[in-house]
Amino acid sequence: MSPSRNPIRSPWIFSFAGILLCVFSTVFPVVTAVPGMAEEDPFAAGNAPPASAPQAGSDQSAAAVEVPPPPEDPAVAAVLATKPETARELLRAASALLALKRPDLAKQMLEKFLAAPPDEAELLRLHQELGTAVVFRFAAEGELNPVGKQVSDLIFTAVHRRYQDAGVLNSWMGQLGAAGNGWYQAAEDLVKAGKAAVPLLVRAAAENPQGELRGRCLFVLKRLRTEAGRYLVALLEAPDAAQQRMAAELLGEIAGRDATIFLLAPALSDRRDDAVREAARGALLKLRAGVPTAVQAARLLTAEAEARLATRAFDEGAAEPFFYWNAGTANVEEVALLPAAVRRRTAARLAAEAAELVPGDQEASVNALAFRLEQIGFELLQSSAEREQSAAPAADGRAASVLLAENAGPLVTAALAEYQGLSAEALDWALKATDYCLDRGWAGGAWAGIVWYAQNAPAEQVRAAFADSSPLTKALRFPDRRVRWAVVEIALTLDLSQSFPDSSTVVRELFYFASSRGIRRAVVADGSQSRAMRIVGDLKQLGVAVADTAAGGNALLRAVADDPDVEFVLISADIQEPRVEFLVQRLRADPRTARLPIGVYALPDLLPKSDRLAQTDPLVLSFAQPYRPDDVAGMVERLQSLPDFDGGSATQRKAVAGPALRRISDLAGNPGPNVSIQDLEDLAVRALYTSGAERAGLTILRRLATPRAQTELVEAASRLEWPPELRAEAVSAFGEAVMNRGVQLTRQQILRQYDRYNRSERLDRVTQKLLGLILDYIEMPSQARAETTVERP
Q1: Distance between CA 567 and CA 519 in Å, rounded?
Q2: Would you tell me the crossing angle of helices 629-640 and 529-541 to the nearest 10 degrees?
Q3: What are the two backbone dihedrals, phi and then psi, of residue 467, each rounded to the nearest 5 degrees?
Q4: Among 609, 691, 613, which Cα is nearest to 658's?
Q5: Element holding 226 (H helix, E strand)
Q6: pLDDT for res 405
Q7: Which of 4, 238, 267, 445 would be a feasible disulfide site paired with 243, CB 3.0-4.6 Å?
């Protein structure tokens, strides 16, 4: 038979042969590479190779092997290969490396740049070549700080000096009026100069009412519309009619419709020059705004003034430029103010112009005075807060509230003098303006008006001013504690032991302010005790002495009602009795807690609830449940940065508590119907444990001489941690109380004092003498409590 192929077995045979060939080609080089591997079977029994001794050298070499770094980005390598040396090369390389995500290398380039900074001319060329965006990015990139900010500041400082230089600006103005096309580059340079070029452009436009130069000046001013508009609006306040007319005409040419509100008074007031009125009316028509009547314009101005105070800026802490007419220098000047201060200055101006349009309208004049009071009070209180934050006390050591009151008086008097015919009725007008501020919740104006009234009103008129629905009565229930303290200071001139309208409320507020211990306190309200105590521990690490922890809403209300040192509260969103939304409402209904910052923290499922509360109340912040100390620190920082908190610092509260305590100590001898003996005792005992207030507490207890007062005096005299002088005063106070009302101690208390004396043999002689004096006073004959006197053994 002739041979034949099996079609089934052939593929299998060839596949098997291929597998053997692959295995052989893989194993053979390995086997032949190891000596003896081909002769011996390493897996055979009894043929295991002997274990070789460890070699230290091979281990060390293996450990020294490092993973090679990844290859450098070719683009980064190309930048580094240029080996930048000059200032221009270093900054361009830093910009390129920053774009390539290598801020570490970019920082090295900037450090080399700072090591040999170029002159001002070179800095200007670098700014022109790189552009503002690149230079600004050096400062904005966090990984480049502080080097990036230093480079940015160096370049921008040179640019600022360049564009503020009077000689340079005048040369550009000369080029602006020159023939040819070179004026356009001068215009670009003037635009870059910004607000520094505006006065020159305004003056040149006014001096050249016709011709190309005026048109070119208007071209630049339109590109600087914001800065030029602010400058011209301030120029409208100049007393010179020519300057007012020039400002009105240019506003009509370059400004937007937002400038029309400032053109109403110049266009309609009888006190303005005819040329000014004509120019302002023409500007209104150019801006496509109608010309209303004087009464309508006054209403528009008042409404705009109130609207300005009702709005808030996105960032209330960022200062912004404000232009105003300085009568002293007879020029428009610029000052950096907080947005709230800018709004108040602008609103006061608009309200004054409204009163100017209707000279016989008493209501408009009172409104204008109220806006002026708000500006004065806000700026004084703001400066006091800034001084408090900078820890800059007064040179003579007086309390900040005293200095503020002294500064407010002349300013308010000057504001009253701006309105003719008001001097004879100044007190009534001040109260009316204060009432206007109270109705709108303006703390600054209410405070300034009350302070001025206290300085100028006689005692009889002050007593009469406390009547139903009077401004002083409203102020006692105002949510800002600075306003309430101003009213209390007025009432201190009266006899508080006698009754008059709201006398009891005055006394309660007096006790409230006197109870401050000058410390930072907070209250944590949480149904979980363990969670609350964890937050309490974190707060103590931040220097906050926690006043209380509340398991329910009602407990929180009791904890914060009479404590002036509580700076904020932290509430869990799952709090009950009442729930958190009703709890916030009740806190806001009480004047003492109406402006208290509240932090609501919640687990994820309740975060929407806390977020809704924060959206409806500017003094409520929503937080996720804190788990770390850093979380609590962030909560406290945000809560204490809220702008409307009126509590001030702990030092300021303690400074206010001092005069309040002294006034209450005067009442202790003859309290009258408005003062509770128990409240006096509670306040005195609290003062004994407040640093700096101990003597006031001893004075109150000395004059009360009640059983509790004598008990606390004996305990105070026995406190070994007190200095000897204070303990001696406590013994003297106890002796006076005994002489006035006899011994009011119980038998057990007297025996305790004998025991203390008998155990004092190892104490110092001063302590022994003081304890002996207490026993001498106890043994003193007394008609009132003769039966309680015990002979000394």
Answers
A1: 9
A2: 70
A3: -140, 170
A4: 691
A5: helix 225-235
A6: 63
A7: 238
Going through 327-463 in order, the beta strands assigned E by DSSP cover: 331-337
Angle of helix 198-207 relative to helix 241-254, nearest 10 degrees? Answer: 100
Q: Is the peptide bond before 578 cis (omega within 30 degrees of 0)?
A: yes
Q: How many CA atoms lie within 13 A of 364 on its CB side?
A: 23
428: left (phi over 0), alpha (psi -120 to 50) or beta: alpha
Dihedral of CA 135/139/144/150: which sign? positive
Residue 424 pLDDT: 54
For the CA atoms of the chain, what is the radius of gyration?
41
Contact residues for 501 (Cβ-Cβ < 8 A; gap 6+): 466, 467, 468, 473
Residue labelled with tokens 């080996």: 83
Is residue 224 within 8 Å of 198, Cβ to Cβ?
yes
Please tell me the predicted confidence (pLDDT) of residue 613.
92
Helix (H) or strand (E) holding 549: strand 545-550
Structure tokens at 649: 């610092």
| 384-402 per-position pLDDT tens digit | 777 766 654 444 444 445 4
**Residue type at 327 in one-letter notation:** A
Positions of the chain with pLDDT lower than 70, given as ranges:
1-71, 388-406, 419-424, 468, 547, 781-793
Nearest to 137 by CA among 88, 91, 83: 91
Residue 459 vs residues 78, 289, 491: alpha-carbon distances, Å = 85, 52, 9
Torsion angle, alpha carbons of 692, 698, 699, 703, to 10: 160
Contact 220, 196 (CB under 8 A): no
Cβ-contact 385, 319 below 8 angstroms: no
Task: Tell me how many degrees the CA angle 133-138-139 measures, rounded to the nearest 5.
Answer: 100
Distances in whole angstroms, Cα of residue 567 to Cα of each of 7, 399, 433, 470, 640:
97, 20, 31, 30, 8
Q: Convert 49-73 to b/e letters by CB count within 10 Å (16 or more is b).
A: eeeeeeeeeeeeeeeeeeeeeeeee
Return all residues near 577 (Cβ < 8 A) that are at least 6 apart: 552, 553, 554
- Amino acid identity of residue 675, one-letter, is V
Give the 3-state secondary structure of 271-331: CCCHHHHHHHHHHHHHCCCCCCCHHHHHHHHHHHHHHHHHCCCCCCCCCEEEEEEECCCCE
Residue 564 · residue 509 · CB < 8 Å: no
Write down the pLDDT at residue 404: 58
What pLDDT, on a 0 to 100 scale, did the predictor assign at position 411?
A: 78
For residue 269, the model assigns a pLDDT of 94
Which residue type, as a one-letter code, is found at position 404?
L
Tell me the C-alpha distance between 434 and 440, whole Å: 10
Cβ atoms of 650 and 518 closer than 8 Å:
yes
d(CA 517, CA 692): 9
- Widest distance between CA atoms in the chain: 155
Q: 267 near 301, Cβ under 8 Å?
A: no
691 DSSP assignment: T
Number of CB atoms found within 10 A of residue 179's CB: 7
**Amino acid in position 395:** A
Phi, psi of 253 (to 5 degrees): -85, -40
CA distance 697 to 705: 12
**Gap between the Cα atoms of 654 and 658, Å rounded:** 6
Of 597, 686, 600, 696, the closest CA to residue 646 belongs to 597
DSSP state of 600: E
Q: Is the dihedral of CA 519, 522, 528, 531 positive or negative?
A: negative
Buried-state track 204-231, b at ≥16 Cβ within 10 A, e below 16: bbbeeeeeebbebbbbbbeebeebbbbb
Q: Using an 8 Å Cβ cutoff, are 688 and 716 in contact?
A: yes
| CB 347, CB 371: distance < 8 Å | yes
